[in-house]
Amino acid sequence: MRALILGLGLALAGCRGATRWETEPKPATAVRGMVVCEHDLATQVGVDVLERGGNAVDAAVATALALAVVLPEAGNLGGGGFAIVATRDGEARALDFRETAPSGASLDAYLAPDGSALAERALRGALSVGVPGSPAGLWELERELGSKRFSFAELAAPAIALASRGFPVDARLADELAEPKLRAALVADPEAAETFYPGGRALEEGDVLRQPALARTLERLASSGPDGFYRGEVAERLVARLSRETPASTLSLSDLEGYRAKWREPLIGWFRGYELVTMPPPSSGGLILLQTLGVLDGFPLDTRRAEVLAEERAAPSADRDPNGLDDRAVHWWIEALRRAFAERAAHVGDPDFVDVPLDRLVGAEWTARARVSIGENAAPTIESLLPAPPEGTQTTHLSVVDALGNAVSLTTTLNSGWGSRLSSDGVLLNNQLDDFALPGVANQFGLVGSAANALQPGKRPLSTMTPTIVRQSDRSVVLVIGGPGGPRIVSSVLGVLLRILVLGQTLDDAVRAPRLHQQWRPPTTDFEAGWSPRLLDGLERRGHAVRRDVEPWGSVQVIQIDRAGEPHGVSDPRRPGGVRATRREP
Ligand code: GLY
Fold this sequence. Notes:
six-stranded antiparallel beta sheet, single chain, alpha+beta, 21 helices, globular
């Protein structure tokens, strides 16, 4: 296992700003199991598995399959994702089931004759579709770490029932389906039109959504394993569907047959005495999280907080952040994120194709150089600190703990909402190829990149998904966290962790608290509503470009286990979701 110890990360327990875990040496493992995700029906599926004696992996797989049905725009079989698992015996595992570029994919297909990028091709339609990873990934996760008390078919049964019998459409789905641009795209896809717009009318809140084709595909996966999806009729129809849409589509039967989920060494870092287990490339989320925390660990966040709280006591002001944050501390936070994202753009890509300098990017030297490069004012023009390499919403997350001490943090995505907006056998297909860096243009998230993340056949596009598990030094789990939001995933997860581990906020407050996002390019930092105007004015005086009151983003799904071993879950109030614990005495 790769153990990347962050610069000065081993802060002493019991220091100022200590959380309740730091003052208590050892939480028990969870006394109950818990599932948190973005749809309550899927939450119920996972908790039923735990109550029937399943472990966290069984429950995560059953929940993910249910999300493929009840959250069709995001939870999915036609996309891919990542999972971090912490097992009761202290092991940490990372599963990569990210989509791959088809073996016949060529950058030329995304370029105009003058060499400029045709970004729309990577975002919509057949050329945006990567080889799906979720069917292989969920199967592999269960095969390797499931309890073996259930067959995959048993875990898939609730999802199949939800797809064939149907379930009531909620307000969020109804609102999405009514959106004119999405409607025009989905109505053009014969399957999606029949499923979501029967008789030409968008399903409304309370209508029953039935997905018989998806139920049949799930049944094939359940009975034949990955071959039920990656070979035979389902695979043939998928390839034919894409070729009909765009004759230049290169996604082939051999691409589907050849797809494999991969176990990777998790990234491990330390912050304030806690161990963070998170996703390595081809996600950049874990790397950015560890880099940012490593840089921040060297700034006197606690001292600054104590000073701000003392100022507040001396001269109370509604204008001050109630948790002791001020523009100086938030300036450090923004600049740390900016430097981590600059490295992402320059150096990070699929590690099977490029040599990602992971050890250097989280090593003591990079961390120290990044830290000393942060002065008192914004540095929007900062570049990567490492030499250039040679030339050469929609996502969803679930967090599960079981009473045995196992935990799963799993994020999957179609990329943007409803993916490519093409479907086959009830499966909406991803548009993940937009996550590659096309020359000279930013992707849909405004992210830019380099050769490290250039499109190549068979390569996995760079992600920012950040499934993460925080453990104590004895390897007992204290937090399971992740969420959707493209590059905003890592800033959402980072914000919640900083608020809990540094500011001592409760889980609920930390998730509700307003967020900030900085990703190097563009240099502007986005702020949700709710930040203190005094703090934002102070940042502007330091030269930060501040965008205020940006629409809320992200949907963090998090479980915290307290020192008595009781799990507390929060499903981000920014979107609907569910939190369910197993009964006390099953
Ligand atoms: N498609 C968004 C991500 O993987 O970060």
